[in-house]
Specification:
By secondary structure, the chain is mainly α. About 60% of the residues lie in helices and about 0% in strands. The longest helix has 21 residues.
Length: about 150
Amino acid sequence: MEIEKEDWSIRMARLLRYANKHRDKAKVVRLLYDRIVADGLSFHERQPPLAQAGRRGRRKRRIGHNLLFRLRDHRDEVLRFLEDEDYPFTNNCAEQDLRMMKVRMKISGCFRSFAGAEVFANIRSFTSTCRKQKVSVFAALEELFQGKLPTMPA
């Protein structure tokens, strides 16, 4: 959607945002999803072929065309959040967990030792888990330093 601004991609983004809010309408979402993928594939089949440097190998495809094949082939995985609440709609939490490590590496260039990187990762993991479990990081650290295991909600 952001790169090619094709109609099917805008419709797919809207549908997925709608699906996230209306998980009870999974059957309708699946039908619309399949229709949008079919429309997108039809659109790309009508496009003129991309210029190829060599004549060997398979024909080069546009970015959106390749994405449509993945959306078609991995439909159940893309829509898994509709049926299982353990699967988040986005992977933003995972990206945020990794971001601080990358920022740290960019600022200082790297860690001085593997052990230092391990310690940093352990601390970040602990604080991130506390936040996700809605536990005060300070209280959990206090319990840890008192020799107790931090209490996490069930």
